[in-house]
Write a structure and sequence with these properties.
Blueprint lengths: L6 H15 L4 H12 L34 E2 L6 E12 L8 E5 L8 E5 L4 E7 L24 E2 L1 E4 L15 E2 L3 E6 L6 E7 L5 H7 L2 E7 L1 H4 L9 E11 L5 E2 L18 E4 L2 E2 L2 E4 L3 E8 L6 E5 L5 E6 L2 E9 L2 E3 L4 E7 L7 E6 L2 E8 L28 E11 L5 E6 L17 E8 L5 E5 L4 E8 L2 H7 L21 E4 L3 E8 L5 E7 L2 H5 L3 E6 L2
Parallel strand pairs: 1-4, 2-5, 4-11, 12-17, 16-24, 25-27
Antiparallel strand pairs: 2-3, 5-9, 6-8, 7-10, 10-11, 12-13, 12-14, 14-15, 17-22, 18-21, 18-23, 19-20, 19-22, 23-24, 25-26, 27-31, 28-30, 28-32, 29-31, 32-33
Helix pairs in contact: 1-2
The structure holds CU-O-CU linkage (C2O) and copper (II) ion (CU) (2 copies).
The site of one copper (II) ion has 4 residues, from strand 7.
């Protein structure tokens, strides 16, 4: 066999695997190729070496580990208080791989699922019990990440929550190992699949990669009334990609420049579902509900079932859709969530797989019979979901997404409106007003844009002439206005902005005045420097 550390053989293998996964568009693929070839193994502190080359995850026997289901954290009843401690743990990602060092919000690699109710506040004390040295390659040259700062910094952000600014997890509100912070979440919002993750300036891509993520479910009476599958029939599925060395340790690539190890994107061929590589899950022949989260740094998933049966999407980032949407395939960008029903009732005794691209990542083993627990059915309608009329907007902001390359055409920095994070705030929406934000994507990537504090609706997308905008500063459309897909018609907080398109969203700024931020949720982009502040003015 070929030497796995040899650049050519690993690159070829990488390409084969990428092709097998076939998740991303051609430009992203080209970038990944580039990254792999530009990656000198000897530079990174955790790089594969002769003793610990890269683990070939696709050569491991699939479907040997049961799918773990995360524990639910309740805390004290009233007032609801929880204490969540970040710590270093060891975890088995696969039967045949030695334990992996990870960071987690709990004793297992799956942060506890926090169950909450609409309008019932929760108080969380986030405790940083992590070591004081990072085990992944920190880039000290990134803004807000200097050598003069404590090396391990954390701040938890509750993604999708309407939270006063001081508890929102502003990137500079980090605290070091040995400290904690108590945050109050009013939760004056509807049922939704939220999640929490690290947001520390310059580090969150590494902290998240190390494992600092978890789900946070808000429920309400509208959801209760639907009698959806619950208990053992409602299962969180968190999906992310990781690379490992043969000794089972997390591998995160670097640029090869020890002074600037930042890389423009990170994708890996090991897909973890609830912290396991290609697990199996025993189900009954009945309807199940899956709360799906893509918590990858950069990877998009193209999800389908291998028997081509449709999945029924009932919710997106910010809660239920108006009606269930049947789909055989859908793409989930980093930070997006999908609330799915899958009906196994006609599949007794069979085995089917959830796949991304052409690659099976989770095996469902359907039992011959159901237990005696009550069965559920697919609701016809879910909730009334008024569309925000375009005419209610008092302001339209044009927001460009830009990439700047070095002489060798390597991405150097990604910007919003050609501005860096630390430049003065330019967006000051007024509280209780509605605005349209149009993201003009002048790059070759899809960027999942996320806005803190608010929920929004997507209006439309439209292709423009990139060359004409670049050379003549003229925005000329080249295609028709495209309506959002049916599963994008609900409330969103993260939206896919494809290359060469204007993506328009309509946002009502509700909740709290103060400083917030918006950014691309490709964590490598966000770190350098696709993140900008905005301030809601009372
Ligand atoms: Cu998922 Cu700024 O966060
Ligand atoms: Cu967020
Ligand atoms: Cu991006």
């Amino acid at each position: 066999m070929s030497d796995p550390t040899h650049p050519l053989s690993s690159r070829r293998r990488f390409l084969q695997q990428t092709a097998a996964l076939s998740l991303l568009g051609p430009s992203a693929l080209a970038q990944m190729e580039h990254m792999q070839s530009a990656m000198p193994a000897h530079m990174a502190p955790n790089a594969p070496d002769a003793k610990h080359p890269m683990l070939h995850v696709l050569e491991l026997p699939p479907f040997v580990d049961p799918l773990p289901v995360p524990s639910v954290a309740m805390g004290t009843p009233s007032p609801r208080k929880l204490r969540i401690t970040m710590r270093e743990i060891q975890s088995k990602i696969h039967r045949d791989v030695p334990p992996t060092r990870m960071w987690s919000y709990g004793p297992t690699p799956l942060g506890p699922v926090i169950e909450a109710r609409s309008n019932q506040p929760v108080e969380i004390t986030w405790v940083n019990n992590l070591p004081s040295k990072h085990f992944l390659p920190v880039d000290f040259s990134l803004h807000g990440s200097g050598r003069d700062l404590p090396e391990v910094r954390t701040v938890a952000h509750l993604h999708g929550a309407k939270v006063p600014t001081r508890y929102d997890g502003y990137p500079t509100d980090w605290f070091p190992s040995g400290q904690s912070k108590t945050c109050h979440y009013p939760l004056q919002q509807e049922s939704a699949t939220l999640w929490y993750h690290d947001h520390a300036m310059g580090l969150n891509r590494l902290n998240t990669y190390a494992g600092l993520t978890g789900l946070f479910l808000i429920r309400d009476q509208v959801e209760d009334a639907l009698n959806l599958p619950s208990g053992p029939f409602e299962i969180p599925l968190t999906l992310c990609d990781r690379n490992f060395t043969t000794d089972g340790q997390l591998f995160y690539a670097t640029s090869g420049d020890p002074d600037h190890p930042w890389i423009p994107e990170f994708t890996a061929d090991g897909i973890l579902i609830n912290s396991k590589l290609r697990p199996f899950f025993n189900v009954e022949p009945r309807l199940y509900r899956f709360r799906v989260l893509n918590c990858s740094n950069s990877r998009f998933f193209g999800l389908a079932l291998d028997n081509h049966q449709p999945m029924i999407q009932i919710g997106s980032d910010q809660g239920l859709l108006a009606t269930p949407v049947e789909q055989k395939f859908f793409a989930l960008a980093p930070a997006e969530r999908a609330d799915l029903l899958i009906d196994f009732s006609h599949l007794a005794g069979q085995t089917i797989h959830l796949r991304t691209g052409a690659f099976d990542i989770l095996q469902f083993r359907v039992a011959n019979q159901t237990s005696t627990m009550p069965l559920h059915s697919i609701p016809k309608t879910l909730r009334t979901l008024p569309r925000t009329p375009e005419s209610s907007a008092t302001l339209t902001r044009t927001i460009t997404l830009n990439e700047h390359q070095d002489r060798l055409q390597n991405p150097m920095v990604m910007l919003i409106n050609n501005k860096h994070w630390h430049e003065p705030t330019t967006e000051f929406p007024k509280l209780n007003t509605t605005e349209i934000w149009e993201f003009v994507n002048q790059t070759e990537d899809t960027h999942p844009m996320h806005i803190h504090l608010v929920r929004f609706q997507i209006l439309d997308r439209r292709t423009f002439d990139q060359f004409e905008l670049m050379t003549k500063k003229n925005l000329r459309f080249r295609g028709p206005v495209e309506a959002p897909a049916p599963n994008e018609m609900g409330w969103k907080d993260t939206i896919q902005c494809p290359a060469g398109q204007v993506t328009r969203v309509i946002i009502r700024f509700e909740g709290y005045p103060g400083k917030y931020l918006y950014h691309c949720h490709i964590l490598e982009h966000e770190a350098n420097d696709m993140m900008r502040p905005f301030e809601v003015i009372a």
